[in-house]
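Z., the sequence and structure:
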Amino acid sequence: MAGNTNDGLSPKPLYSVALHAGAAESWFGASDTRMKTEAFIKDVIMLAETQLISGIKAVDVVTNIVEQLENHPQFNAGKGAAINIEGFHELEAAVIDGSTSEYRAAAGLRQTKNPVRLARAMMSKASPVFIAGPTADALACRKGLEMVENEYFSTQSRKNYWLSNIDRVRSIIDHHGTVGAVALDIHGHLAAANSTGGLMFKSIGRIGDTAIIGAGIYADDEVAIACSGSGETILKASIAGRAAADVRHGRGIDEAIKGALLRSTDLDQKSSSGAIGIDAKGTISIHCNSRIFAVASASSTSQFVAGFIPSTIPIINQLICFENELIRVGMSRHPTAPNQLSVELKRNTSIMDLELKDFLDYFCTLRIMSHALQKISGLELCGFVMAGDQEATLLPISAPLAGSEGTPESPTALSLETRELPGDYRATFHFKPDYMNPAKVEIGPANHMLTGLLSTEDYTIGLAIAIWTTLELLHTEFGQTKALSVLEIYQAFTSGAIATLSESGSAESHFPAPAPFHKDFPGFMTVELGRRAENLLELPAIAQEVSRIIKEL
């Protein structure tokens, strides 16, 4: 493949790179650990970008990235790797050069410090392509790679966890992880690399998806993909190979990766996985159905990003309650309250950027969903919260919000302005001292009494128009389009507001740790994900019942 540039005018070469440090349900680190982890993967991705710009080949860049991740004790690869059922470590890794389709992998390693280095070194010979067990360590030694005692891979936190749980081995699916990278170099070549310590408490000799071509890793001249997560399910779903095949058949890489991850949850509702990918055009795609995914990326056409992301696939097929051309609604896999619904906008745009007709359709659909929730929960009230572009939460609640909870400023610290809205509504804009733009907006009735949230179609349309008009005012009068990105709608605030627009919402942030589950309404709502639902296997039946009720409304 000839070298590429990002357009016909700029001499800047086209390149892209992405890494992952594991898809998971759990987070055991403190806030300082999170910051150190994010700073580390930021440094790694910035170095990788520098290497790509200098002309280093993609296959060497991804190897270098994974080697650095293997040496970092926070991740489940190399130093910090998972401990098997007998109390020691067995590691695996793979590298693929997409320009030549050369693939090498090693598994069952017990003494090779950097498994990814062995996989890369194996490319100098035609055979073996895949090697496992003691002979793999022996090959690494013959090639002059650094060897260590098995104890080197242990960390105190891993050992403590193993000792605490070995007598009652349980929930091991939550304690997986992988590190990996994909890259497109300035010569137009793609590559992928992956490395892992496998599952905690795994059987001796167990090999997961990480080093298996077509399962956890794939690269050719059109696409490179690396996966992380539930190894057995990734193997059965062939996530990397399935997504790559879709890309080769003309599907966008974003849709291809999401589709492959959804296929894994079709096979197992508990599947907790993620994937990173790059196509030949340099498009980067990062998705996960796990609760969190540690990732970083950079390219010639965008700034680098690094950190933890929440699930990008909020609704799996078995839990869908309703779907039309505009939205998809389903039971939440990671709820913070009983009978919680996730609402996903299917358009590639923000809810707040919808045209008025679609905005009204969106809220009229929410009205139907809220009535179904009231029937199935036995509660009379519902609340809605949206943060960001496309995802939202709808859930039944047991009491209205008592006041403007979560607002850090006292009322006296804010100056107020009001605007009259259509339908006899009023918007109250709250300004911080010395700030030109509002920090919060409350929307409520100007003169009439409050009724049930989204209780009738006319009421719903009136409220939706009031919210949409407020968004227009924020844009035209204050030049704000994204700053107030959290929309909350409750039955009623004591202040008389029905809806609020704010920067951060009323809930405390817990991410990347799970948001707590509240059986009873705590007085606020959040779009942050909780722990995976304890009744996950029962949720498909609940989703079917909600769907039945919706059809009757």
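The first strand starts at residue 16 and ends at 24. The chain is about 25% helix and 25% strand.

Let me know what you think.
H.
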